[in-house]
Records
---
Amino acid sequence: MSKLLAVGTVAFDAIETPFGKTDKILGGSGTFVGLAAAQFGVHTGVVSVVGGDFPKEYLEMMNSKGINTDGVEIVENGKTFFWSGKYHNDMNSRDTLVTELNVLADFTPVVPESFKDADIVMLGNLHPSTQMSVLDQMNQKPKLAILDTMNFWMDSALEDLHKVLKRIDVITINDEEARQLSGEYSLVNAAKKIHEMGPKYVVIKKGEHGALLFNNGKMFFAPALPLAEVFDPTGAGDTFAGGFAGYLAKTEDISFENLKNAIIYGSNLASFCVEKFGTQRMEELSGDEVKERLGAFKELTQFDIKLS
Amino acid sequence: MSKLLAVGTVAFDAIETPFGKTDKILGGSGTFVGLAAAQFGVHTGVVSVVGGDFPKEYLEMMNSKGINTDGVEIVENGKTFFWSGKYHNDMNSRDTLVTELNVLADFTPVVPESFKDADIVMLGNLHPSTQMSVLDQMNQKPKLAILDTMNFWMDSALEDLHKVLKRIDVITINDEEARQLSGEYSLVNAAKKIHEMGPKYVVIKKGEHGALLFNNGKMFFAPALPLAEVFDPTGAGDTFAGGFAGYLAKTEDISFENLKNAIIYGSNLASFCVEKFGTQRMEELSGDEVKERLGAFKELTQFDIKLS
């Protein structure tokens, strides 16, 4: 089993959806990636930063799931990154109400010695030069480096983004961002252009419309499981990425065929994430539930047409 | 092999896309359904109406594909239904420029004697009472009655729509229309409500985001094949429906498992339809091309996760 290093935010979220609202609860991309990867029992280390206001219980909960938090710096006199948002009725769009960077503003990730040999590195959505600094700290090039990014960095740090793209294997990005980065409307053409920027694998996330995996002309698609109720979409994208990375770390197989499976595992875990507020559903999720829903994914997508 | 009866429009379209524009060319839901079903060599009869201005060559082309046009009434002193539209850059939205109902305004479909025993009936997007009149003309209840409809009829003839829904087996509808008809945002809940209105099978078309098939708690999803270029989306939905119905007519198996395959065949044919203006691609499409692309669909969707 491979080691997984996940760099991202560990944060407070306050969320409002048509179903209710929360006070400050546990959130952050590093948290969701870690909890998703924990489903595979992989050795995951999270690199992040929190303030002195961050409850020890949250870190203890993560540790209890097998997540190593040695790389989570605690700035005692600082405040934890805080995001607050409100989802609209359709759950596909949201307004950001508050973004307080706090300790994240000066975040310089330090990779713990014990994770400098991680086989798989998941670079969460941070400044491209911060992502680069993590790669620079590794003992050797990881077997698979996965990068998440967003339009904000395309607008504000495109040159740095292009630099780090040359050094990673997989990019995860949403459809609008893929279009922005490539200047192509068709996702097939967008993926082709993004391949040329560096990543051999391009994962395009389409939210409720599923996710596409591209690898130099090969394509795979995983739908999102249609659900009767989406309670809170926060963290679904990070859970998807964490499931993807965690499955690959567990299976130690980075062939295209196995990346297909990883995409399905990611979609599967994301379908749980949205069922409750914040990390709640992921904290309580059992292996049996995961397996049962994988069965639903097979029913949803597998068919029997002979081509002979 | 079963007989397929398709009721719909046979029409002139004039189309403008970012790739170019056409004069009046052959279009209409009945035409696209017939051409798609022709791929399976089924005995398809189209019921429709055209004016004296409709070129005989178009009917001869349809006949040459094995489509029976005895049910296409020709109103010599009338003009053929004409639609003109312009697609936006994203190809997902369009403006209707012209709609001239012409002979369609007084259309009363007459099912030819030789198709009154059709096993599968595809009721194209027409007034619900017109759709009902077709069912009334059949010698017996068909094995499978498929109905296409749209928001226009929900706004203007909801009561009639509910009446005909009680008599059909499959409804094909797009996502927004499913939400409007059911009053539910979640497509899972929408399908449940629509089941209660009559149809045991609910097919929800999501355009470039694929199609969902629901059958009382069971679900199946077929993606649209991601394409480098969508040239003209006109007729894709009807081609999907025609492929679906044609495959079922050919295989004479209306189990849920086989409906899955039919959805894939429908998506497959729709992926060709959009590659050229109007009916052009469907007219020239070969069986080998269809089979090759089915292989691409399998690559796109099939994975190998063992659940034991």
Note: The radius of gyration of chain B is 18 Å.
---
Amino acid sequence: MNEIEFEKRKTIKQVEESTALAPKFDQDGLIPVVTTDFSSGEVLMQGYMNEEALKKTITLGEAIYYSRSRKILWHKGKTSGLIQKIKEIRIDDDQDCVWLRVDVQGGSSCHVGYRSCFYRSVPFGNDSSNTVLKFEVKEKVFDPKKVYGDAPNPTKL
Amino acid sequence: MNEIEFEKRKTIKQVEESTALAPKFDQDGLIPVVTTDFSSGEVLMQGYMNEEALKKTITLGEAIYYSRSRKILWHKGKTSGLIQKIKEIRIDDDQDCVWLRVDVQGGSSCHVGYRSCFYRSVPFGNDSSNTVLKFEVKEKVFDPKKVYGDAPNPTKL
């Protein structure tokens, strides 16, 4: 398979209105990635890719992120078995964000054990005087202790 | 209405498994935000909020972002009329990302004129040798020239 090449960003019209893939990576060399469940549309997680991760994701058809805490490429699901199979890749108008639509083999994308990382809602509007989070998803899909053992928790304070 | 206060981030268990709203802002004081259409589930855009924008969004029930290019709070739709009415706010496991589910009055969230910013797909897997973007959405909802006039395009090369 040929190596993928990204186009140089030349004009706003090229970036927004053409078929040229010319992604923009930030000062740290990263592009944010939104990952949704292909069937339910639920947002599963938000992560980052560097250039290598995006190229490998495109070629392999499985989600490969860049872990900012561990500073390595991160083939999602390699430890837990919960691989994200790509069904569609979208890129936004100014090509500084990627949207992945995936099928998760095993059904979970969250290291805490829930299906989605976004298992809590924030009250708003008339309810916003009391900002107590509400658990929208109560059932865990897996037990993180059994899957990850003593591996360090990626959440940073 | 009372001013919203966020909790201090104390422990991983508090951040991941409690009802305390303790969002994490990055070194620039920002938190990434994924915005989806409440009805279709489509990802409309990805933006950023600072602390003030998140508090105002929660209180008002309409999406207020922080514009990194203009360095100001950005009440989405104030110019175009395409206000994003919040239907649900979710926060992720480590509370460093926000997911907004919105109804867009007018039906578009993209400054180029499309319904969603993610109107192009990237071929992958066996199709990845030819990385030509495909337009998945062909119809614009509005004419950006009529709506924005000569305002500077937010896309940066």
Note: Chain A has a mean pLDDT of 91.
